[in-house]
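Sequence in, structure out.
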Amino acid sequence: MDLIKKRKKRYRLDITPLIDVVFLLLIFFMLTFSVQGQGIDINLPGESAGAESLETPLTLFVNQDGSLKLQNKIFAIDSIAGELKSKLTHKKDKSLVVDIHNKVPYDVFVRVLDLAKKAGAESFSIIR
């Protein structure tokens, strides 16, 4: 006589990790879509902007050693402000293109931008 019944093993599916993953995805998408309102306003040029700006922009090259080159003349950082001011006063478009070498330290880059801003540059295009 068999008095002890054998119990069948029942396997249960543990859904706790599934719920954790679903909640993490929900939080991720909520945070991603909440950032949508932040950003920078950009004024894109209109159709007539191409015809107006036939003037070539002023280009300033920043070399690896910290020297600056403006219209095939080499300048030190301290002496570039006066030259930039004289060049920008004769231009209708007060924009400056800064072509900077990859190895230039960040403090030199910021100093050049500050000097150009003080010299009268209103907008910058940075090439790296």
